[in-house]
Design brief:
Layout (H helix, E strand, L loop, with lengths): L14 E7 L9 E7 L5 E8 L5 H16 L8 E6 L3 E6 L2 E3 H7 L4 H25 L2 E2 L8 E4 L4 E3 L6 E2 L24 H4 L6 H16 L19 H7 L10 H8 L9 H10 L6 H15 L4 H18 L7 H8 L4 H7 L1 H8 L4 H9 L1 H4 L5 H12 L8 H14 L5 H18 L3 H13 L6 H15 L5 H13 L6 H15 L5 H23 L4 H4 L10 H4 L6 H5 L2 H14 L10 H10 L93 H4 L22 H15 L5 H8 L8 H25 L12
Antiparallel strand pairs: 1-2, 2-3, 3-5, 4-5, 6-8, 7-10, 8-9
């Protein structure tokens, strides 16, 4: 009597039902709708049966199908989530799926990817059928396209369990739709063949019908099964056995899997092998894993995107986090990460990346830094500053040159995301240390290059203190490529310098470099000088231009007017010579006969560009074309008006040095003997020009140890370490003194300019000139020692202690 007041159970269904999905018309009494769990973002598929659209008999079949699905758990069967049943309807919630017919019509993947997806899908259905027949002792009795669904990962799932029977339950139920009778095997209408049937003969016949429909469309009549023109040749023999007239000759589903996995079989391809491997990756040994991960990246482009990102990627992430896989897993993992949406990337990849950056394994860290460009855009600034930066900077102090080099390169990509302290304090501290103390010329060069590239991100107050000091220090480096990087860095960041700094600090230092022993350094130095002089001359002629010239000094982003100044347009094309000089030097060292070569440096650079060496790092984009006007402006009279707007910093990927070929032991050490944090090294007034006699040999004949004419530029600095060294010959002491004066001198005074003029003037005898130079050096060394003794504690950035 209380049934009138009972609540409708369908109203308590925990899922919202939305639009109906097409693909099951006239072959199933189920209607499939997209759905979502109430109060969450969990997507589901809702199978709905309403007795108004069917009959009482179909209602009983629908309830039987729900009961079967509850008890079946297999990767190849649609996953049951929830259900609600009443006297008039049935609601069944499953994982989100799409009918196979609808998926085949709307799939936008390439033909090759489609074939691979079909092969994997048919293998999954065959395995699910084998599970039912051999393990569950059940007969599906309804294998066709309307019983197969595709999930979000692109995997095929078996459903349509309303006609399932056990081996002892007698004949299958009568099918509700006449269109389904076309899938009945011929023995259903021939009693003489029924004694030849097996527990799987009906389902393997249905499997053959499914294969035909996948390649030809819905089956309308049984006679169409004889047409095999659209079937793959590797699948045709197996298909013919499945739809054979003799029930006893049809193979068991397990035999279908075995035959298809044989060499040349339809189930034997790269996609299936890869997917089966990742399913069993936890039991594979290290050698097998490394071989697989090394072969996987080239194949990923051929795989269907849904399967790759939803099936392979999760297994790779799990294998790395818990399986102890090495760094070889990173390349395919990052490549697959590019297929994810931004929301998916933040959820699935970023936690793994944070863990990777904290890895102590050097190989993993190097590969991670090499791949940084592929995922840096997905890293949020908070994540970079709070969880990643502290681990990255440890690479600056690592003993491995390769790790230090890639850390320098990585800082360029991370710089736009760093906060004030990490960028303007912490990062610059490590840059100062590398530029002053690193023993690898390529790393010192790359540090200078990176300094020019991140200049636009630095705070204006820090930028004014650091840039000129950093680049002027690089111009005194014993490595030619580092000196070129310093000169070009000044040119590329010219918009950040006041005219007073240009005239008082930049030009005097560049004028000294016009006597550099390296021809390439001198060439770029003269171009830069002409550019700065042209800028000063314009302001001299029209003082109103001063405000425009200095507009970017206190701004974070250069204005169009100064960024595109014509006088500096040559810098964009000229920057590529940094790597050219470096590679030609590397090549000269690696050739035994290079010592006797009379080839000019320009020829060596041309050869380096024509034939890349083994250690060359190729550019990611072609170098910009040189403008035809040269560096015009001041004394030259000819002004270059080519635009600079497209190269605000003027640096190309070619500018990086290379550490792929290890530096020889004869390279001059850049590590000072005095232990300091390197901050005082940014003050360029601490350094005076090198007064050693210039080396006029071609670049191809100059060894790294000869580049600076000193073996240890800091050998004469009085410290506890140097006091224990053995006495050096007179020539060595002289060279060391010159190097010390160059690195720890008292600034631009008259004695420095006298030294510059005393080299090669030809005003007296050669012996007299050498004696005078020796006396000046000794006097200079005494002054240096007195200053060093008066120092108390490390100097700060921008400070000068007298």
């Amino acid at each position: 009597m209380w049934s009138f007041f009972s609540r409708d159970p369908s109203k308590d269904f925990a899922f919202d039902i939305s639009d109906q999905v097409k693909g099951l018309e006239y072959r199933s009494f189920w209607r499939v709708h997209a759905g979502r769990k109430k109060g969450t973002s969990q997507n589901v598929s809702v199978f709905v049966f309403d007795v108004k659209d069917g009959s009482e008999a179909q209602l009983e079949l629908a309830k039987a199908a729900v009961k079967r699905l509850k008890t079946l758990r297999h990767p190849g069967v649609v996953t049951y989530i929830d259900s609600t049943e009443t006297d008039k309807l049935v609601y069944l919630a499953t994982e989100p799926v799409t009918p196979l017919e609808e998926w085949l019509e709307k799939s936008s993947i390439s033909e090759k990817q489609r074939d691979l997806a079909i092969s994997w899908g048919l293998l999954q259905i065959t395995k699910a059928l084998s599970f039912l027949v051999n393990d569950g002792k059940l007969q599906h009795n309804n294998i066709c396209m309307s019983s197969v669904f595709v999930d979000a990962a692109g995997e095929w799932k078996l459903a349509g369990l309303e006609y399932v029977t056990s081996g002892s339950s007698g004949p299958p139920p009568h099918k509700a739709f006449p269109q389904l009778q076309v899938y009945d095997p011929p023995e259903r209408s021939d009693p003489s063949k029924q004694r030849l049937t097996s527990s799987w003969s009906t389902d393997t016949w249905g499997l053959g019908c499914l294969i035909w429909e996948v390649f030809n469309g819905p089956l309308m009549k049984m006679a169409s099964l004889k047409s095999t023109s659209k079937l793959p040749k590797s699948l045709t023999p197996l298909y013919c056995d499945l739809v054979g007239g003799n029930p006893a000759g049809r193979p068991n589903p397990a035999q279908v899997v075995e035959r298809g996995r044989q060499p040349g079989g339809f189930f034997n391809n790269n996609l299936i092998q890869s997917l089966l491997f990742v399913e069993e990756i936890q039991i594979k040994d290290t050698v097998e894993k490394n071989r697989f991960f090394g072969q996987l990246p080239p194949m990923l482009d051929q795989f269907p995107p849904d399967l790759a990102k939803n099936k392979i990627l999760p297994q790779l992430i799990t294998a790395f986090e818990f399986g102890g896989s090495g760094s070889t897993i990173l390349a395919p993992m990052f490549k697959l990460g590019g297929l994810l949406s931004e929301e998916e990337y933040q959820l699935r990849m970023v936690p793994c990346l944070v863990k990777l950056f904290s890895s102590p394994d050097r190989a993993t860290r190097v590969k991670l830094l090499q791949q940084l460009e592929s995922f840096v855009d997905h890293l949020q600034p908070n994540t970079v500053n709070e969880q990643i930066f502290s681990h990255v900077v440890t690479g600056f102090l690592d003993t491995s040159p390769t790790l230090r080099e890639h850390t320098v390169r990585a800082s360029l990509l991370l710089a736009p995301k760093l906060n004030y302290n990490n960028l303007n304090v912490e990062l610059l501290k490590y840059f100062a240390r590398l530029q002053a103390k690193d023993d690898q010329g390529g790393i010192r060069t790359n540090t200078t290059v990176c300094m020019g590239k991140i200049a636009q991100y630095l705070h204006p107050s820090v930028r004014q203190k650091v840039l000129i000091s950093a680049f002027l220090r690089a111009t005194k480096d014993p490595f030619p490529a580092a000196r070129i990087a310093g000169v070009l860095g000044l040119a590329a960041t010219q918009q950040y310098y006041s005219l007073a700094d240009v005239s008082a600090r930049v030009l005097p230092a560049l004028c000294h470099l016009t006597l550099d022993p390296d021809k390439e350094v001198r060439q770029h130095c003269f171009k830069t000088i002409r550019g700065f002089l042209g800028k000063l001359e314009k302001v001299s002629d029209d003082p109103s231009l001063k405000e425009t010239m200095e507009a970017d000094i206190n701004s974070h982003t250069p204005t169009a007017g100064t960024a595109g100044s014509g006088w500096a347009s040559w810098a964009t094309a000229a920057l590529s010579t940094v790597s050219t000089v470096y590679r030609s030097t590397q090549r000269a060292k690696s050739r035994p006969d290079s010592g006797g070569s009379s080839e000019a440096p320009a020829s060596a650079a041309a050869a380096a560009a024509a034939e890349p060496s083994r250690g060359q790092i190729l550019p990611s984009r072609p170098p910009p074309a040189e403008s035809g006007g040269g560096g015009g402006g001041g004394g030259g009279g000819g002004e270059d008006t080519s635009p600079m707007a497209d190269a605000s910093d003027g640096w190309d990927d070619e500018d990086w040095g290379s550490l792929e070929e290890p530096a020889p032991a004869t390279e001059p050490s850049a590590v000072p003997s005095n232990p300091s944090d390197g901050w005082d090294s940014w003050q360029e007034d601490e350094f005076s020009p090198v007064t050693a006699e210039p080396d006029t040999r071609p670049l191809s004949e100059i060894r790294w140890a000869d580049a600076g004419a000193v073996e240890d530029p800091f050998a004469s600095v009085p410290t506890k370490q140097t006091s224990q060294r053995k006495a050096m010959p007179t020539a060595d002491v002289t060279a060391s003194s010159a190097g010390a004066a160059a690195d720890f001198g008292g600034g631009w005074d008259n004695s420095d300019w006298g030294d510059m003029g005393g080299v090669g003037t030809g005003t007296g005898g050669e012996q007299d000139k050498k004696s005078a130079m020796q006396e000046r050096r000794q006097q200079r060394q005494k002054e240096l020692e007195a200053k060093r003794a008066a120092r108390k504690g490390p100097m700060k950035l921008g400070a000068r202690k007298l």
